[in-house]
Every structure is written in structure tokens, then in C-alpha cells.
Amino acid sequence: ITDMKNYRLIKFPKILQNCFLLLGMKTEEFNEPKTHMLNWKKIRNTLINDELIDKLLAYEYTGPKETEVPNYSYINRIKERLSKISQDDVNYYNLGLGRLFYYLSLVVSLRIQNIYIRRDQREADRKERENKIEEDRLRSEKFENDMAIRREEMAEEEGFDEEQEKIDWENNNPPIEIPPEVVDELDLDLEEEPVE
User: Fold this and answer.
1) How far is C-alpha 78 from the chain's CA centre?
2) Helices 95-154, 50-58: crossing angle, 10 deg rounding
3) What does the pLDDT look like over 76-112, one tens digit per residue?
4) What are phi and psi of 84, to 5 degrees?
5) H helix intervals, 13-94
6) Residue 121, number of CB atoms within 10 A of its CB
7) 140, 144, 154, 175: which has the highest count of C-beta atoms within 10 A?
8) Which of 177, 153, 17, 176 is nearest to 97 (CA)?
9) How many CA atoms lie within 13 A of 10 on its CB side?
10) Pair 100, 51: CB distance under 8 Å
11) Alpha-carbon gap, residue 143 to 145, rounded angstroms
């Protein structure tokens, strides 16, 4: 990829533009002023270097992204723009750019998958927590009912030890562990679908 500095013009500038957007750069840093055209003359000497590759490899696609991004940098918009490019055409043009394109496509897809997997996990955790709370409520009701029945049964007998009965009941009906509250994570790099 760094050998592309010697090219006077390049094909598939959208690959590099989307790469820069994924890394958090603003369009003013790599496009011609007030256009959507890549400023190849400017960036080929400043941005196309080993540091770009290091930044790309250091990009963490897992976990929440709590930093606001501009509309054009949403991860699903980057994926949509990249999906319009053919891998074979890029490989035929330049193998290094083809590898970059392939890597970008994978990272973007993995990021989107990670967001949805974590959302599903949080939803499952919430449901599990609600079920445990309900089980605990039913357990408390059962305890009250069982203790009332035991009191009635033992009313005739003088030897009713409520503390011992409670300990025996706890041993037979272990307490239910309620998981902690599920905390929402922010994924501000994904454009949310409008809710109807």
C-alpha cells in the first residue's frame, strides 16, 4: 500500500476514504475542499504510510463506542459504500489495495456483528434478571405460605421453634441469586434504524 505513493492517480479512492473515516478522521483532512473527491496529491505523501497500517491494525472493533461520529462515518454507511466495490476489480488493479479493502470489509462486518451480539446478550441478561426477580417473589410467597401452614400444624404442640423452621425451610429452598442491573452500552458509530 505504501508503494502507491508513486501513483499519480488512483482507482477506488472510496476504499481509502472509508478507511480514514473508520479511523475517525474528518473528510476535510483527506478530501478536496468542499467536495467528496479524495485529495490524492495531498494525502499520498502525508497519510499513506506505515502509521496508517498501524492505526488500522490497532482499531478495536469490539466493545462500546461512546464517541460521537459524524453522519457520514456511521459504520453501516461505511459498509454500504464498500459493498458497491468489487473485490476482484480491486485485486486486479493493486493487490495491496485489494488486501486493504478485504481487511476493511471484514473489520466493518465484525464491528456490526459485535454490536448486535452485545445487544442480544444484554436483552437476554435483562430477561434472565426479570425471571430471577419473579422467582424470588414466588419463593417469598411460598415461604410465607409454608410458615403459616407450619404454624397452624404446630399450634396444638408447644414446641414450635420459628427460627429452626425458617433455617430448615432455607436449607430446602436455597435463595435465588438475582443478577446485577444490566447497563446499556452506547454504540454511537451505528446509525439507528428509525423506530415506527
Assistant:
1) 16
2) 20
3) 999 999 999 999 999 999 999 999 999 999 999 999 9
4) -85, 0
5) 13-22, 40-46, 50-58, 75-83, 87-93
6) 11
7) 154
8) 17
9) 27
10) no
11) 5
Three-state DSSP class for residue 78 = helix
For the record, the C-alpha cell of 49 comes out as: 504510510
Residues 6+ apart with CB under 8 A from 158: none
C-alpha cell at 16: 481509502
pTM of the model: 0.83
Question: Scanning the structure block, which residue is given the C-alpha cell 501513483?
Answer: 7
User: Is the pLDDT confidence value at 6 over 80?
Assistant: yes
Q: Which residues lie below 8 Å from residue 18, measured CB to CB, with a gap of 6+? A: 78, 81, 82, 104
**Cell numbers at residue 2, please?**
505504501
Dist CA 76 CA 120 (whole Å): 18
Q: Is the dihedral of CA 105, 4, 52, 29 positive or negative?
A: negative
d(CA 22, CA 55): 10
CB 1 within 8 A of CB 15: no
